[in-house]
Amino acid sequence: MAEKAYKYRIYPNKKQQELIQKTFGCARFVYNYFLDKRKTEYEQNKKSLSYNDTSKMLTQLKKEFIWLKEPDKDSLQKSLKDLDMAYQKFFKEHTGYPKFKSKKNRYKSYRTSYTKTTVGGNIMFVNKHIKLPKLGLVKVRDKQIPKGRILNATISQEPNGHYYCSICCTDVEFSQYPKTNNNVGIDLGIVDFAIFSEGNKIENPHFYEKSEKELAKLQRELSRKTIGGSNWNKARIKVANLQKHIFNQRKDFLQKLTTEIVKTYDIICIEDLDVKAMKETGNSIRNKRVGDVSWSEFRRTLTYKSQWYGRTLSVIDRYFPSSQICHCCGFQSGKKSEDIREWVCPVCGVIHDRDVNAAKNILNEGLRLLNFK
Fold it and tell me: Among 1, 64, 77, 176, which lies 20 to 30 A Cα-Cα from 100?
């Protein structure tokens, strides 16, 4: 049993689109209004407003601004909870003071909770339609049916203008894959995306690099247009569509690869890579390639799929010298330049492929950590 989100592209009619846009605006207004209130209250009176305080104030605010009653009321409460969560992160995790939401942000969203009604619930999948609060039945073309118990729904609009609805469900039952008695260590790289301890390698598809020239051309065309005009908006949508295409390519690649890994292996060992530090090298070409390989998304996807299907994921320390140790005799050499792809162990004389040797060391260290636990 676990949680799972089902994401659908939705096709609202003009009236539904208008209400969705109003809800986006109202949720943003409530967030910014009470962020200013909390900030002012602390600066003037040294008091912190809680979520309950702002919720009571919202009730009075609706009497002053009648248009706040038009959208789904729970979306406004969720906006207050998001603000309260941002404050808690600021104090506990020091993630930075909450910022005001900009109207110019092309990605918009709001969230609403499931409520049980006499006819089932306010959020339901009904015959190629999704029933949503205030919106009613919204058309979809996806045939997947949500499983488990619905918790909430997130309605969003992406920069290319497409609308989406993500339904979060809990108590979803997943059929477990059969045991294979195979374990693997995976070393992630830039030239080859993934190198397995068995010796096979997955080539890096370089989706962004392949579309970079076309993207640059569309961005140049966009820069020549008058900002805010109809031609500018058409050019902006072309850029957004290409960026979305690159995102979809990368997502499809990672989903298929991680599913195949989880099906094939019982224990999966990977490194805890510091992607942020790897991007701070000053080398723009390397930084671009590090961003294109999506190591963080690969790990995130592999993590939740391992939990869903009963596999074990072992993550070794990021400072473990996987490429410096001989997996045969344990000899540790000094740090090597990235240009060196093969090296000979001076103790046992074995010729190592740098990446395959690293993957084997990751597997050994991952298994050691599991046995230690």
Answer: 64
